[in-house]
Design a protein that fits this description.
The protein contains three helices and eight strands, in the order βββαβββββαα. The protein has about 130 residues and is α+β, with helices and mostly antiparallel strands. It has one domain. The protein has a five-stranded antiparallel sheet. Strands 3-6-5 form a three-stranded mixed sheet, with no helix packed on it. A hairpin with a 2-residue loop joins β1 and β2. α2 packs antiparallel against α3. The radius of gyration is 15 Å and the shape is globular. It starts with a strand and ends in a 7-residue tail after the last helix.
Length: about 130
């Protein structure tokens, strides 16, 4: 899995990975230098700055990360969670665990002000956390 976020850079709509994520494949360059492509129409349905999770991605070239189209889910924007009940109970647990673990491990998020409220919102969709 990988967490992504949308942004505008210059006049281009861009996909970026959230910093500090690990990949199974050893990258030959920094993640910031990779061209990231995916189903832009799916991403564009959500506000700019939304955080997404994608189950599948591939590296068609060493400098190209491609997000597989049917595996993208919009998770949250600012502090509001998007409906994720369509994922099913097991998938919700897996996706939310991955997201919350990333937020805690990255050290970029405040536990009480950002992580806990997000976990509480995920709980309304069946996510169990401690």
């Amino acid at each position: 899995m990988i967490l992504l976020q949308t942004k505008i850079e210059g006049t281009s709509y861009q996909l970026t990975t959230l910093p500090g994520q690990a990949f199974e494949k050893k990258l030959t360059r920094s993640i910031e230098d990779l061209k990231i492509t995916g189903p832009i129409a799916e991403f564009a349905k959500f506000p700019l700055g939304t955080v997404f999770i994608a189950d599948k991605y591939e590296f068609p070239e060493d400098d190209h990360l491609h997000i597989v189209s049917d595996t993208v889910t919009g998770l949250f924007f600012n502090s509001s969670v998007f409906p994720i009940s369509a994922l099913g109970e097991e998938k919700i647990q897996e996706v939310c665990d991955f997201t919350i673990d990333y937020m805690i491990d990255s050290g970029r998020y405040d536990l009480e002000k950002e992580v806990q409220p997000l976990a509480n919102q995920f709980a309304s969709y069946g996510y169990n956390f401690d």
